[in-house]
Every structure is written in C-alpha cells, then in structure tokens.
Design goal:
The chain is an alpha+beta fold and 144 residues long. Helices cover 24% and strands 37% of the residues. It contains 4 helices and 7 strands; from the N terminus they run E-H-H-H-H-E-E-E-E-E-E.
C-alpha cells in the first residue's frame, strides 16, 4: 500500500488462541524458558496461579498485521513500545489491533496505536513506527 493511500484511523486486527504448543515453540525459538511459562508446578506458586504465555508472543501479532495487512508487504518495522497490562493464559484468544495515528509523508513514516485484547480487556498496548520505502514514485509495499 502506498503511503498516500493510508489514512489516520485506518485499522486492522488479527486473532489467535494461545496454545501450549505455541508457548513451547516460542521458548525454543527465543531461549526464554522461564518456569512461569514452562512449569505448571512453578506457575501454581506464582502470583498468576497458572502458566502464562510470553508477552512477546501476543506482541508479535502486530508484526503479522503490518507485514500482511496494513501497510503490507515490504514495509519496515522501525520501533515498538509495549506496556504489558495483564497476563495471557493458555487457551486465551488474543486480538491484536493496529490503528493509524499519525502519518509523516515527508519521511515515509506511519505511526500506529497498538493494542492486544483478551475478552475485551487490554493485555498489551503501545505505539509503533513503520517506514514505507519508495522506489521511483511508487512504494515497494504491495497491496494486500
């Protein structure tokens, strides 16, 4: 999508239910084997009372939205702030939502408010910045 097609308020969302397999796969990829994610016995004694998903699993859904929906393929993730508000548990369905909040066409930058919700409660919020590369008057980003 070309930057000129992007408007403040445009939004996209993605939902996924978190599974035990997701948590184990993420631990293997990231190396984060914190027992609050991996051990039922440990997690039962924690403030959460049961295993929680890595916060970065849910936040990674923002990347999926940016790369496939808004703005789309070819765009470059520049920065992301994250505030982790609530835990996400196995079996929770996370909905990630990205909303255009600011556009700087002179720098080819688009800024987004980002939020993840479970049962309509915010579990993560933040702000993202994306760069939209241009090539001879056109964008490298494809339309989705």
């Amino acid at each position: 999508m070309e930057i000129s097609e992007i408007k403040i308020g445009m939004s996209e969302s993605y939902s996924q239910t978190i599974t035990d397999a997701d948590i184990k796969s993420f631990a293997g990829i990231s190396g984060d084997n914190n027992p609050v994610h991996m051990s039922d016995e440990y997690a039962e004694k924690s403030r959460f009372k049961k295993r929680i998903a890595h916060g970065m699993i849910s936040s990674s859904f923002f990347s999926a939205l940016f790369g496939t929906k808004l703005p789309g393929a070819g765009c470059v993730y520049v920065s992301q702030s994250l505030n982790f508000k609530r835990p996400v548990y196995i079996g929770d369905t996370v909905t990630a939502i990205v909303t255009v909040s600011e556009i700087d066409e002179s720098k080819n930058r688009v800024y987004f408010d980002t939020v993840c919700k479970v049962k309509n409660k915010i579990v993560i919020d933040g702000r993202a910045e994306l760069y939209i590369p241009k090539e001879k008057g056109g964008s490298l980003c494809e339309k989705s």
